[in-house]
């Protein structure tokens, strides 16, 4: 709900979308969609279905409207505006690249156009949509839009130690934890990590199991990401992070609370000093991530010159 200057609160409708971008003959282009019902040009977007996350809705709406599957990149500025119904619409946006799909138009879209920035700005029907375009241009100028995701996942809720008689590494997820592992599929799929590194402990392997099955990839179990392996040699996890930054493959690490500070602080070293991304990572290193949380770090570049340009928290 939204409250303005003592007036009655406005009902808020949540929606999300993706500004797809590509390079065509060396020039940056973005994708606009045309809605026949309104005769307008805007970004692909749509309302959240019941129980759907913002990021899940963004990917689904792009596919439904354009026939293209998006890999989500950096977050873009939100938009909020009143509707004729008197409700307030709030839209979350991300940049993204089309990685699959046949481009067949569906839903209410009757045309799409890949346009260079200047022509896109001229064709957009609403001034408010220019904010996302400006953010795209600025990101391209500062660090380039071709970022890759480093996702850090804390395992979902597991059976408490006091209620488990077996080996600690065999503790299973609770029913809530299992449900979170399932909802992580759509979230991770939006960023499409192609490598999953995980502790072999059941509570970690089970957290990522639904996604690795969905993506048809084999998880890589690392002793350095387990509680026991980390306690024996904390240097291993540092090496795993450094190798991930050298490879630049979209990647996700699934691990435990005691291991997270070392991972997060090392990633923070790739952030611009004093920036929001580094502050967020250091804060989480100190205070902890939620069980089942996925932290997405958007990285530009590789190796020692890589930079984390944005961080997103996806909490259960």
UniProtKB/TrEMBL annotation:
Pfam families per the UniProt record, alphabetical: His_Phos_1, NUDIX
Keywords assigned by UniProt, alphabetized? Hydrolase
Which PROSITE patterns is this protein grouped with? NUDIX (PS51462), NUDIX_BOX (PS00893)
Q: Where is the Nudix hydrolase domain?
A: 11-137
What GO molecular function terms would the record report? bis(5'-nucleosyl)-tetraphosphatase (asymmetrical) activity
Where would you find the membrane-spanning parts of this chain?
none
State the InterPro entries in the record. Answer: His_Pase_superF_clade-1, His_PPase_superfam, Nudix_hydrolase, NUDIX_hydrolase-like_dom_sf, NUDIX_hydrolase_CS, NUDIX_hydrolase_dom, Nudix_hydrolase_domain
Output the GO biological process annotations, alphabetical, semicolon-separated.
AMP biosynthetic process; ATP biosynthetic process
Question: Which family is this protein grouped under?
Answer: Belongs to the Nudix hydrolase family.
Matching PANTHER family, A to Z? BIS(5'-NUCLEOSYL)-TETRAPHOSPHATASE [ASYMMETRICAL] (PTHR21340:SF0), DIADENOSINE 5,5-P1,P4-TETRAPHOSPHATE PYROPHOSPHOHYDROLASE MUTT (PTHR21340)
**What is the name of the protein in this document?**
8-oxo-dGTP diphosphatase
Tell me the organism: Yimella lutea
Q: What is the lineage of its organism?
A: Bacteria, Bacillati, Actinomycetota, Actinomycetes, Micrococcales
């Amino acid at each position: 709900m939204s409250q303005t200057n003592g007036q009655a609160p406005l009902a808020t409708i949540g929606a999300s979308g993706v500004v797809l971008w590509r390079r065509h003959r060396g020039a940056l282009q973005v994708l606009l969609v045309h809605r026949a019902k309104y005769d307008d040009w805007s970004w692909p977007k749509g309302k959240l279905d019941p129980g759907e996350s913002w990021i899940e809705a963004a990917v689904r709406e792009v596919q439904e409207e354009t026939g293209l599957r998006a890999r989500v990149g950096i977050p873009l500025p939100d938009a909020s505006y009143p509707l004729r119904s008197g409700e307030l619409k709030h839209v979350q946006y991300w940049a993204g690249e089309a990685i699959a799909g046949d481009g067949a138009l569906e839903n209410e879209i009757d045309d799409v156009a890949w346009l260079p920035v200047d022509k896109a700005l001229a064709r957009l029907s609403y001034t408010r949509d220019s904010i996302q375009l400006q953010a795209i241009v600025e990101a391209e100028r500062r660090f380039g839009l071709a970022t890759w995701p480093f996702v850090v996942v804390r395992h979902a809720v597991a059976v408490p130690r006091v209620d488990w008689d077996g080996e600690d590494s065999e503790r299973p997820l609770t029913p809530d934890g299992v449900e979170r592992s399932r909802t992580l599929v759509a979230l991770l799929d939006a960023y499409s990590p192609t490598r999953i590194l995980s502790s072999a402990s059941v509570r970690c392997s089970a957290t990522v199991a639904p996604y690795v099955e969905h993506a048809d990839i084999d998880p890589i179990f690392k002793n350095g990401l387990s509680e026991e392996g980390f306690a024996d040699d904390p240097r291993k996890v540092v090496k795993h992070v450094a190798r991930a930054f050298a490879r630049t493959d979209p990647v996700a690490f699934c691990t435990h609370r005691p291991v997270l500070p070392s991972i997060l602080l090392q990633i923070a070293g790739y952030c611009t000093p004093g920036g929001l991304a580094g502050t967020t990572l250091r804060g989480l290193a100190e205070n902890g991530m939620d069980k089942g949380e996925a932290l997405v770090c958007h990285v530009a570049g590789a190796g020692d010159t890589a930079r984390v340009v944005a961080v997103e928290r996806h909490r259960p």
